[in-house]
Amino acid sequence: MTDKTFVSVFRSSKKPDTYIYVRRGQIWDDLPESLREIFGTPVHSMDLIMTMDRKLARTSGRQVLEAIADKDFFLQMPEESSGYVVDFRRKPEQSR
After folding, report:
1. Residue 94, in any domain of the structure
2. Tens digit of each residue's pLDDT (9 = 90 or more) over 5-54
3. What integer is the mean pLDDT of 52-75?
4. Separation of alpha carbons 60 and 82, rounded Å
5. Which residues of 29-54 are buried (b: 16+ CB within 10 A; e: fewer)?
6. How many domains does the chain have?
7. pLDDT for 16
8. Does residue 11 sit within a domain?
9. Does 67 reside within a domain?
10. Residue 90 lies in a domain
11. Cβ contacts of 65 within 8 Å, gap of 6 or more
12. Cβ proximity of 57 and 17 under 8 Å
């Protein structure tokens, strides 16, 4: 693995907050078919120079580069979030 790798980031056209990191110039059809079907049409977001010590919002350069070296891609899925949040500081609205 080199010190620096050019990486392209694409967002999914089917899944919100889902991104795939690949080497710049990666041929989409060379990635696993099941991944391509679930991901949908890739929408280019940005290109980065990735290093092992680069810090990203939800991952690290090391995780991205190791996944790319192993599988040719790094898939970033959305974080789990609660679908229902109650604000206990407010009194419930009363209907009259």
Report:
1. no
2. 999 999 999 999 999 999 999 999 999 999 999 999 999 999 999 999 99
3. 95
4. 25
5. eebeeeeeeebeebeeeeebebebeb
6. 1
7. 92
8. yes
9. yes
10. no
11. 1, 5, 50, 51, 52
12. no
What is the secondary structure of 38-94 as a DSSP string? HH-S-EEEEEEEE-TT-B-SSSBHHHHHHHHHHHS-EEEPPPP--S----TTSPPPP
Structure tokens at 41: 């049409």
How far, CA to CA in Å, does 67 sit from each of 15, 85, 87, 94? Answer: 20, 34, 39, 53
User: What CATH number is associated with residue 11?
Assistant: 3.10.510.20
Q: Cβ of 22: how many Cβ atoms within 10 Å? A: 23
Supply the range of the domain harboring residue 12.
5-76
| Calpha distance 66→50 (Å, rounded) | 11
DSSP code of residue 35: H
